[in-house]
TrEMBL record, chain A:
Keywords: Membrane, Transmembrane, Transmembrane helix. Coiled coil: none annotated. This is Multisubunit sodium/proton antiporter, MrpG subunit. Residues 97-118 are annotated as: Disordered. GO terms for molecular function: sodium:proton antiporter activity. The chain crosses the membrane at residues 7-28, 48-77.
TrEMBL record, chain B:
One of its GO terms (molecular function) is sodium:proton antiporter activity. Belongs to the CPA3 antiporters (TC 2.A.63) subunit F family. It is a multi-pass membrane protein. One of its GO terms (cellular component) is plasma membrane. Its main location: membrane. InterPro entries: MrpF/PhaF-like. The lineage of its organism: Bacteria, Pseudomonadati, Pseudomonadota, Alphaproteobacteria, Rhodobacterales. Keywords: Cell membrane, Membrane, Transmembrane, Transmembrane helix, Transport. Pfam families: MrpF_PhaF. This is Multisubunit sodium/proton antiporter, MrpF subunit. It comes from Sedimentitalea nanhaiensis. The chain crosses the membrane at residues 6-23, 30-50, 56-78. It is found in: Cell membrane.
Length: 118, 95
């Protein structure tokens, strides 16, 4: 039984670290700010959950698992909130997403040049 | 096997740092900082488990708290040019 739990926790931990790398690579390679939001949320959701559940399996039913679940619960609350706060702040400050649907190209070109404070 | 997770998280943190330095706009940097904080929380947890000292998780929990507060503070500063009491005139210039 212990071997099964060990193997299961290794699978979770490897999966979690894999998604952490996937999110980081996405954060580097995605073209603009708005698509990077998705990359960050990949690490915030999949990476965090898999790694913490993997560690919780490794620790078994002890106080450590309670702390791990506390961290998981807290990251659940703050992850999306902070990502939303960043996105809202960016949108308000004029960093417009490149949507060619609701504006014509002439306006799009000028708006993108002066978008976002450097 | 925890070594694998430590190395993977280290690579992820280096990549996030690249985005932190390269990031064209301010908000890319804030996003990278936030992601770096989350990676640090995981890194502290995994290193704690690696050394057989699970009481590192208190540090990881604290770091998660501070990271969130820091992100919101940075955003508020760049929005209102002040973290403390927001003066009426700056608050009115909402986008």
């Amino acid at each position: 039984m212990q071997a099964v739990i060990d193997i299961l926790s290794w699978i979770f931990i490897i999966g979690g670290s894999f998604f952490a790398i996937v999110g980081a690579v996405g954060l580097v390679r995605f073209p603009d700010f708005w698509s990077r939001l998705h990359a960050v949320s990949v690490t915030d959701s999949a990476g965090v959950i898999l790694l913490i559940v993997g560690m919780a399996l490794q620790a078994g039913l002890t106080l450590v698992t309670v702390k791990l679940l506390l961290i998981l619960a807290f990251l659940f609350i703050t992850g999306p909130t902070s990502t939303h706060a960043v996105a809202n702040a960016a949108l308000v400050s004029g960093l417009k997403p490149r949507s060619s649907v609701d504006r014509d190209d002439a306006d799009a070109a000028t708006q993108d040049d002066k978008a976002g404070p450097t | 096997m925890f070594i694998l997770a430590v190395i993977a998280l280290f690579i992820a943190m280096v990549l996030v740092l690249i985005r932190l330095f390269v990031g064209p706009s301010l908000y890319d940097r804030v996003l990278a900082l936030n992601s770096f904080g989350t990676h640090t929380v995981l890194f502290i947890g995994v290193v704690g488990f690696l050394n057989g000292r699970p009481d590192f998780l208190d540090i990881a929990l604290l770091y998660a708290l501070i990271n969130f507060v820091g992100t919101i503070a940075i955003l508020k500063f760049f929005r209102y040019r002040a973290i403390g009491d927001v003066r009426r005139d700056t608050a009115e210039t909402d986008g």
